[in-house]
């Protein structure tokens, strides 16, 4: 069962996320870590949260908050309307029919597998984007989503869109700011919940708010001080909406790791979300 998600990922916001990713990629090619010609692309890329083992940990922690479970791979088939004004919420990252990212996902899936079971819903998904309507989706969309989730290509499509819109921009910005694996995860969890639009509670504006209080390591700041400032700004953003009022995914999870100085997000990890305890050994 997902906890309510308040993403504001409209089409314009998705373009914003893509724009965020572009300068980050350029920066990454200029960092000393990427400079040695002998370094393989895989070795150069997997230096933080994008290390496969760390990425899996990140997915488990996010799933603990979004699904009350560490089994994030069981969520490809998930779909329901959680009555947050964003229509259907579905899949491993909570793609929403009202925020544009579900539309992008189905469009991408249809590119790689034309004639799939969800392709026929594209006109309806375009019409309901931006609201909570189910027009043209009911009564069989949820059944067809679950059916599509048995297809390996659909799972790959969900992974692709998660990385393109959320994971890669967050990790890239984290590396640009000079923060380690924990900091990159903190960014990722923020962009998953808030998206990266132009509104005051979006990821980029949470970061801007934090910049009024501290500087990231890349600008000469202390990493722990910076991440605390970012989390303060994140909590402020969460509290702007009543459904966000429980900030335990920050207070009893991310701040626990930060207070312990676990900037590399090393296991074992113990945390709580919404009162539930979780452990990764």
Automatic annotation (TrEMBL):
Q: Name one Pfam family in it.
A: Glyco_hydro_46
UniProt keyword annotation of Mitochondrion present: no
The cellular component terms of Gene Ontology attached to this UniProt record, alphabetical and capped at eight, are: extracellular region
Question: Source organism's superkingdom?
Answer: Bacteria
Q: One biological-process term from Gene Ontology? A: carbohydrate metabolic process
Keyword presence, Secreted: yes
Q: What does this protein do?
A: Aids in the defense against invading fungal pathogens by degrading their cell wall chitosan.
Q: What does the record give as EC number? A: 3.2.1.132
Species the sequence originates in? Streptomyces lavendulae subsp. lavendulae
This protein's name: Chitosanase
Q: What is its main location?
A: secreted
Q: Which PROSITE patterns match?
A: CHITOSANASE_46_80
Question: What is the reaction catalyzed?
Answer: Endohydrolysis of beta-(1->4)-linkages between D-glucosamine residues in a partly acetylated chitosan
Q: Which GO terms describe its molecular function?
A: chitosanase activity
Location in the cell reads:
Secreted
